[in-house]
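During the reporting period the student researcher (J.K.) took over the structure-prediction task from the postdoctoral fellow and processed the backlog of single-chain submissions. One of the processed entries is reproduced below for the supervisory committee.
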Amino acid sequence: MQVRAPGYDHFTTDVLIIGAGAAGLRAAIELSRGGVDTLVVGKSRHGDAHTIWAAGGVNASLGTRDPEDSPDIHAADTIGEGHYVTDPQAVAKLAYEAPERIRELQDWGCRFSLTEDGEIDQRYFGAQSFRRTCFAGDRTGEAMLSTLVEKAKDISVPYRENVYITKLLTASPDSGGHVNGAAGYDLKTGRRLLFSARAVVIAAGGLTSLYERSSSRRNENNGDAMALAYDAGAALRDMEFVQFHPTGMVQPEEMAGMLVTEAVRGEGGRLYNAEGERFMEHYSPDHMELDARDVVARANYREIQAGRGVEGDAVLLDISHRDADYIKERLPKMYEQFSSLGVDITREPMKVSPTAHYAMGGIKVDFDTMQSTVRGLYTIGEATAGVHGANRLGGNSLAETVVFGKVLGEYLTGNLDSLPRSNPDEAEVARHFADLDALGASKGEHDPNELVSELRRLVWDHAGIVRTEKGLDEGLRKLAGLKEKADSLDVVGGSGDLEQALNLRSMLTASEAILRGARLREESRGAHHREDFELEDPDWQKTILCAPGVEGMQLWNEPIGEIPQKIQKALDEDYSLDYHHLE
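J.K. obtained the following structure tokens:
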């Protein structure tokens, strides 16, 4: 329901979903099918979410190519490559439910690539024991999202575009202190927006736009999902674990960091340095280019740092030994992407370099309910933490969206009556909109765009692929200086400047959580690599959490749950990818 109040528009719904990618839409579909009044809001037009950039595939142990695969082995691969700091129950749920979710998408019209027998085809992805990555050429995320968008439209799921959520609202402590709405504004008109809801779901992605080079679009994945939850009092988990994809584009400058999908290596792509050496033979002779992303990314990084990179601080990724028609069929997006730059990947290699790609860290949730540590606030998708541990298995992110979107939708459909109905406090709403007005009219000393660029360089330099105590301490010192500058912003024009100022605030919170978590974890584990603590330490097989405290950001540890017996058995049996099937 919408009411036009003085100064803002007020919407009332049972469940507000912030974020319209695959996770948010899958949850909305489940809720709407259960008769729950649901509203999805997104920053972009309907169907234009970061999901479309997940190109290579989605994991499910269908056994199409390798019948010996199973959910237990999928879970074992996930826990092993997560370096034993995943939430084992969450991993089990992901692995056991993914096959049904993929078949459901196919039933809804998702055009997965098929075998000659008409089964969903599966390819290799890095660090997987068997071929379990389902795909739609190299446009898998796009195919999945378009399917979910059409399904949502078919059942009339309400959706509002161009919405920037700026604050989660909570009921007064004497009413339970639960999250009961959100405030924001329309990015096109500037009109203030208020949403009342019995439950709020964050499905707004990750944080890799904090880095100078990332596979995200610049206006997405800037940590606002985590910052919204943190500001509402929710705990964050494992923020130090950020995955760097081994292969991002380096040229032209406006495309630097754009993903070159893992499907290129899954189809047999090879990495070479400037000397023509296939260098993964030194770093991972058994798994070569299909070792875990953290291993391959560090190998690329070290080759470049050692001066064996090609022009543009890059290495070469070559798929040209494959048949040209095969490449065009299996990798159509990559073929077109490089052809537009005058590079024919059927004949010549691609220049690539590591790029910030995915946040394993995020908001802490209970994976049975998807509720955060604050009542009434739920989270799904990349904004959550716990499924991927210290290093995400490629193909698991898309699986996570539909598996846990369904889990959340089912839970809230059956348990919504346990959440009270209440409107956000009018005084709190008035104060927040007044603060927004003041920020939009501020004429301070510092351009928010320049501070965002400075912050991205800081995070890349001090919390990047390789970290040290000295570098992290220096990063925290510089961050404190940026925070001071952010208190005096020059926001002089339209909603675009206000948007960047708000992005900066979120990015500062998320960056601090990454730097502090990385400083505390004195070991190397998965994507978190400390040059001053190069070994994995059994005493650090635990998770790091942070939340707002009286004296600022507070950090603490919690133990990891017990691995289910069937999955432990699969771990003990030590399945491993036979890379040489590709030779």
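The committee noted the following: The first strand starts at residue 2 and ends at 5.
J.K. will present the remaining backlog at the next meeting.
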